[in-house]
Write a structure and sequence with these properties.
Layout: E1 4-7, E2 13-17, E3 20-23, E4 29-39, E5 47-51, E6 57-63, E7 72-81, E8 83-91, E9 100-102, E10 109-114, E11 118-123, E12 136-142, E13 157-160, H1 174-177, E14 181-187, E15 191-199, E16 212-220, E17 225-232, E18 236-239, E19 242-245, E20 247-248, E21 250-255, E22 265-268, E23 272-276, H2 279-294, H3 300-308, H4 318-322, H5 334-352, E24 360-362, E25 375-378, E26 381-387, E27 393-403, E28 407-411, E29 416-420, E30 430-431, E31 435-442, H6 446-454, E32 458-461
Antiparallel strand pairs: 1-2, 3-8, 3-32, 4-7, 5-6, 5-8, 6-7, 9-10, 10-11, 11-12, 13-21, 14-15, 15-16, 16-17, 17-31, 18-19, 20-30, 21-29, 22-26, 23-24, 23-25, 25-28, 26-27, 27-31, 28-29
Length: about 450
Amino acid sequence: MTPHRTRNQTGRTDVGLPTVVISDPRPGHRIHEPVRFVVPAELDGDVWTATRPDGTTVLCQRLTEHTAPGETAFVAAVSFTGRTELVLTGPATSTAAGIRQLEAREEDAFVRLDTGYFDLELCTGTAQGTGSSKWGLRHFSTLAEGVDLLPSGNNAIGGFYGPFFTPENGLINPPEHAVVDIEVVERGPVLHHYRMHGVIPDGLLDELRGKSFTVDWMFTCGTPHFTRRYVVDDFQTVINGRSVTNLITVGDEFEGGRGELVFDRFESYDATTYRAGDPYAAELAAMVAETLETSQSRNPKFDEFKSLLTEDLESAHWDLYWRLFCSWENALDEPEIRERLARVRARAHALADHPDREWIITRDPVDVSATPHETAFPGPAAKTAEYHTGSGRTMVWWTEKPSGAFQIVQRPQSGWVNWGSNGENECPQLPTGVWIKTAYGQFSDWRAVADDLETPPEVRLA
């Protein structure tokens, strides 16, 4: 195909640019699919327009991170079926149709975005040790539905927890115990790319001290999914009696209020293999009750937890269970934390693998709220989903490498829902550095959506 000649910002005919050919190896229609391409020319202007064969115009945002000397990298969000082409025509004169920034709701909000599909708020956290102090996405909805999956701001999508948030390490919670700095990598009408930088507070385990992390977040205009990646300093430790090397727990939380679930079913892409119930959570809750009754600790933090953890433990925020045993909180001294959590671990490890806890293999959706402790631990998968049977709302996850296990919670008593990449007893199972794509919306076939997340369009220059 003959290269098209393009005019630069001064109107002078400049370089001949190739046609960008986009082909979908999968059937179906792509909705504002992020497409990246590199042209062999240095072009001025942060945003360009491109035309399609039918004459419609697409915005192309110049990328700073992936542009090398002698070339220019772009990203566009393209809706198409099967195949389409883009021809760059010149710098854009208007970007009004792109991603917009909105007025934030949380005090620690870094940015609130209207992506053209999502309304979301990214927060830096405040390191106060509470649900409302977490970094991550603390508000999230689609523009079409208008239902915030995190209305209180006391939970978050996108935190990572294990192996730091484990009984072995004194339950250090990176999202609640750290403040992140956020770097703007790319920000324009097509793509917002943010990179969090944080340091994890030290816990009980020497090998997990002094660790830092980054989290990349990418949101594109009109796209029904977003992308992220977690990179943590190398580590090796033992959790749940197993060696853990560079594996983390990523946790996405949702809330519907007491008696309400935003998602009430879970499925893996193939048959779901899982065990029901969470002996560790039950043992931790029992230890909370024992500690409140028998501990000799007397300090303002302990007294605060004792006043908050009243009779209705089932409906209490999960934070109140574990924070009592968090070394960062100083409600108990380290020897008492170690001794009490060692007993919790010993009992939970034995109960987790008790012969009575059989593996269940099913191709039917799992009603997690009907299981003991409203918790299921599915086995390895790269494509998973949680959805609501009444409304049809569906969240789909694809991980570049499979997670070795998951913890799924759908608890009506508190309205708390969780998707976590960990096995039993908080054992992390997702390799660090892998890309995660998460789609949300009304999907008639979530497996087709997962396949689309896994298989991006093919892009070439002609």
